[in-house]
Amino acid sequence: MGSFFKECGHPQSRWAKCPHPYAIRYRSAAGKQVEESGFANKDLAIERLTEVYKEKKTAKQGQPRAERIRRYGAMRFADYAEEWKAGQRHLAVQSVKHLDSLLEHHLYPALGSRRMNSFDHKVVDGFIRTMERNGAGLATQSNAFDKLRAILLDAQRLGIFPENPVAGVKAPQYDPARAVIPSSEQLRGIRTAGDDAFMLIVDLMSGCGLRNGEAAAVNLDNIVADDVYRVSEQVIMATRQYGPLKHRKPGEYRDVPLPVRVRETIEWYAEKHGTVDGYLLRQATDPSRPYQHYAMDNQWRRIRAAGTVDVPEGMVLYGNRHFFASNCLSNGIPITDVAEWMGHRSIDVTFKIYRHLMPGSISSAAQFLNAGLAA
Q1: φ and ψ of 18, to 5 deg
Q2: Could you give the residue ranges of the DSSP H alpha helices within the chain?
Q3: Nearest-CA neighbor of 202 among 220, 183, 187, 224?
Q4: Neighbour-count burial of 297, counting CB atoms closer than 10 A to its CB (0-12 exposed, 13-18 middle, 19+ buried)
Q5: How many whole angstroms separate alpha carbon 203 and alpha carbon 209?
Q6: What is the pLDDT of residues 182-212, one digit of tens each?
Q7: pLDDT greater at residue 207 or residue 370
Q8: Distance between CA atoms of residues 227 and 224, nearest Å
Q9: I need a surface site. Which of 77, 82, 308, 354 has the fewest CB within 10 A?
Q10: What number is the average pLDDT over the span 287-294?
Q11: 109-113, 136-140, 177-181, 305-309: range with lowest mean pLDDT
């Protein structure tokens, strides 16, 4: 740590009574020997040596952080984002494809050459305004902002920013459009308007709340109880192969209610068409490959174009899944359960899309509460 001494020549045994000041000797962080004098007593000399030691230790510990700030702070946003993306190993193939699209078409053109240490809330807010001027939809704005925020918060953890660079920025507010949902009568016509595979898909979407790709991966072995179907994988559009569920890691699943009619459709289809390793739907020209999205999409377009079935204006194939949510909520099933069964990452998504389907109002709630109080 260093040493203390007196320059007067008196032996150390007399230092305590000697009136001459103490001096200290130590090596600086650069390795150069340094002397300081003028300390009235030994305690003050030792206190100064301790202070020097702490300063050197702090400087040594802070050196890697300072190096990180210099290195990453001067890095272009595009280069930093590529390093960040390489660490997102949990993302599914489709999620990576979506991330690449946001980076290529929105983030990189506006921010790609900007140095990381130049970001602050004004830069972020300016980026949002740029997207607005370019006519980007609210959903795209919201997704791009979320990705930018994740990247900048990662940089903040490295010490590039002393404060959160997105603090105070008003995020784009994406409010999903109200879902177009078929009535029960319309659903009966839709489910029988295509071939057997189409009817099976419509039943799985409207009866169990499955997404298109999840319905395409239907497997007889996933009936884990008479009234429970286990959703464990999907056909991913980008790869045309089976893969993990949206927002889930490989091997994760969710259990959903299995109505009698849907179970009977699954068992009827399996008996009529057979299965391959339990899978019911396969590619028509090559049964060794999974059923593809375009097969159901093409049928849906033909059904709509034919005009022989009553299809609500603006309804898409996904409207069959919306029917499931509508059926649940209109029958008083808690929205928390609906969100879990539908595989939403957050209940906020379920609430934004289906809030108008939830029965009741303040007035009716007051009546229910009053009935309970009067009981």
Answers
A1: -75, 135
A2: 42-73, 77-86, 93-102, 108-111, 121-133, 138-157, 184-191, 196-208, 212-216, 260-273, 293-306, 319-330, 335-342, 347-354, 362-374
A3: 187
A4: middle
A5: 9
A6: 999 999 999 999 999 999 999 999 999 999 9
A7: 207
A8: 8
A9: 308
A10: 89
A11: 177-181
